[in-house]
Amino acid sequence: MESIAEGPKERAPGEGRRPVGSRSALLPPGRLACDYVVPCLARYGLCVKDAFLGEALGGQILAQVEGLHRGGKFQDGQLVLRRAGPARRIRGDQVAWVEGREPGCRAIGALMARLDQLILQCAGKLGGYEISGRTKAMVACYPGNGLGYVRHVDNPHGDGRCVTCIYYLNRKWDSKVHGGLLQIFPEGRPVVANIDPIFDRLLIFWSDQRNPHQVKPAFATRYAITVWYFDAKERARAKEAHQRASAQKEGASSATGADGPT
């Protein structure tokens, strides 16, 4: 299986520049969207932008994330797979959900605003998606105890999420030493995209089954912030399905209560 490594690549026969490691100076959201993000997503299904916010703001965000960690704001994000045989842990991160307006989180809010501007500039050019909103920011920490996140798809069941944005905060990160590599396995292509979670790096990719991915075991504290953007139509369908399921569940509970002992 071919590996898409880090950094700018020479053009392969019949291919353009690979969607990794853009290190150009800070660009306005409009130029970044039109010149880089939209073409990369259309061609590869993912893109990586280094030096996304710059040292000053990136450093403020890192300090705020470290403050959340010290303050005990993170909770286990673990899922446990219970099938035949022993239970298996799916993810080893700890997470905190942030709106960006909380005390001590304003720099994280600035990141979210910058992402909003970028995605807004991509409007109408994201494969037919109509962006209607986003999640809160999921601030995640792998504590360095050798755990990762098994191969998965962010949105396998049509919950409305269409674009995943991950911002990394790890200075002097060496995946050969620290682990924590994110690997994406683009659907239908014999390649793997190896993404080092280095400081001030932004990763964007489609959230559906086109991009199964995993986080390799991390052996040092690893921080990332993830925001998912919703497609309007798929999100509306997901909400309607949830409401129907909830109504059916309530109806079943009422029927059970009526038929029970009196």
Automatic annotation (TrEMBL):
One Pfam family this sequence matches: 2OG-FeII_Oxy_3
Obligatory cofactor(s): L-ascorbate
Annotated GO biological process: cellular response to hypoxia
Enzyme Commission number: 1.14.11.29
Location of region: Disordered: 1-23, 239-262
Top enzyme category: oxidoreductase
PROSITE patterns with a match to the protein in the record: FE2OG_OXY
Subcellular location: Nucleus
GO MF annotation, one: hypoxia-inducible factor-proline dioxygenase activity
UniProt keyword annotations, A-Z: Dioxygenase, Iron, Metal-binding, Nucleus, Oxidoreductase, Vitamin C
A GO CC term assigned to this protein in UniProt: cytoplasm
Catalysis: reaction(s): L-prolyl-[hypoxia-inducible factor alpha subunit] + 2-oxoglutarate + O2 = trans-4-hydroxy-L-prolyl-[hypoxia-inducible factor alpha subunit] + succinate + CO2
Fe2OG dioxygenase domain: residues covered: 133-231
Chain intervals with Basic and acidic residues compositional bias: 7-18
Cited PANTHER family: EGL NINE HOMOLOG-RELATED (PTHR12907), PROLYL HYDROXYLASE EGLN2 (PTHR12907:SF6)
Name of this protein: hypoxia-inducible factor-proline dioxygenase
Natural source organism: Thamnophis sirtalis
Taxon lineage: Eukaryota, Metazoa, Chordata, Craniata, Vertebrata
Gene: EGLN2
